[in-house]
């Protein structure tokens, strides 16, 4: 077995991809949210489904929460429930995008009373992190404007910076603020954090525990996302991914489904930038998360397939012959260099991943193993009545 294959196995065996609690609830578009039988009714059932994804993939040991969608009276009890099921509670996502008060913005709103309310929610989410033991607070703001002149762009940036600074000051030394950008939706003229540059600038102003989240659905069509990844990694500010895929807008489809070559290129830059290397500490760690909605497909198999797609892209990235690539790049051998990536991308890595799973005592085919488990039928039979979880939009 080549050194490269052995290194690839080692990295794949410890790959950690966080699932989003909201992927297990009902979701849809503005036209329709389709309810599915067996959907969780509370955060405890969402965590149980996340644990099931980990049980069959071995690569999803934590689940991200979204507050208030996952609000519970006792977060310690939820954390213990997760532990009993073999997973942990991960990133805490704040939500200042579903309250009537936030129509003209949350932390950027012209009204100081509303800014105070939004900032207080962000601070409450840090309290939740203290209770769950989570490292990352992820902040995505739907804040923006729809018409030129609607508000003062620079003044909104000042308001945003003020709120972020207050939240950052509240974090403890092992906690991070992860700032997520998005080009458009729900605002369509300006978003207050529209791109990586704006997020990066705010993170630099805050401090080294402020990092950027790259949601793969949040860019203009044709954006070279792996370039952004390489630049943020080089700057030590790539903190997280929200993985999904899209054909047009923020479609939140299964990662790698729309463009597996893009996902490979992204994971190749992550590898080259040291993002897969074992780290001395959490500082500089990249949180690999899924942020998806399974509007029409079964949700747990959808998450399992998503994990497998990230694993396959990662395995292919790990098989790029770096020495051959470097030699071709140095020689100006354009096609030789491109060929090194294309050869890796063309490699069938499914046998390698099957071996990695077997070595971990897992079924080599997680999708088939889940289908045989009877879990899907059990939750449909058990989860009758009550209010199915959703985005509550
Ligand atoms: C916004 C977003 C953000 C989450 C939400 C569920 O589009 O990507 O990461 O809070 O989806
Ligand atoms: Mn996201």
Characterization of the model:
Helix 7 (225-234) packs parallel to helix 8. The protein contains 14 helices and 10 strands. The model has no long low-confidence stretch (mean pLDDT 96). The strands form 2 sheets. Strands 1-2-3-4-6-8-9-10 form an 8-stranded parallel barrel, surrounded by 6 helices. The chain has a two-stranded antiparallel ribbon with strand order 5-7. It is α/β, with parallel strands linked by helices. 6-deoxy-beta-L-fructofuranose is lined by residues 22, 93, 140, 180, 182, 215, 242, 250, 291.
Secondary structure topology:
Blueprint: H1 3-13, E1 17-20, H2 43-57, E2 62-66, H3 75-84, E3 88-93, H4 112-132, E4 136-140, E5 144-145, H5 153-170, E6 176-180, E7 190-191, H6 196-206, E8 210-215, H7 225-234, E9 238-243, H8 260-272, E10 287-290, H9 299-318, H10 322-330, H11 334-345, H12 350-359, H13 366-373, H14 375-382
Parallel strand pairs: 1-2, 1-10, 2-3, 3-4, 4-6, 6-8, 8-9, 9-10
Antiparallel strand pairs: 5-7
Helix pairs in contact: 1-9, 2-9, 4-5, 7-8, 8-9, 10-11
Could you name the key traits of this structure?
393 residues; alpha/beta; 11% strand; binds 6-deoxy-beta-L-fructofuranose
Task: Give me a quick take on this structure.
The protein is α/β, with parallel strands linked by helices. It has helices at 3-13, 43-57, 75-84, 112-132, 153-170, 196-206, 225-234, 260-272, 299-318, 322-330, 334-345, 350-359, 366-373, 375-382, and strands spanning 17-20, 62-66, 88-93, 136-140, 144-145, 176-180, 190-191, 210-215, 238-243, 287-290. It has an 8-stranded parallel β-barrel, surrounded by 6 helices. It has a two-stranded antiparallel sheet with strand order 5-7.
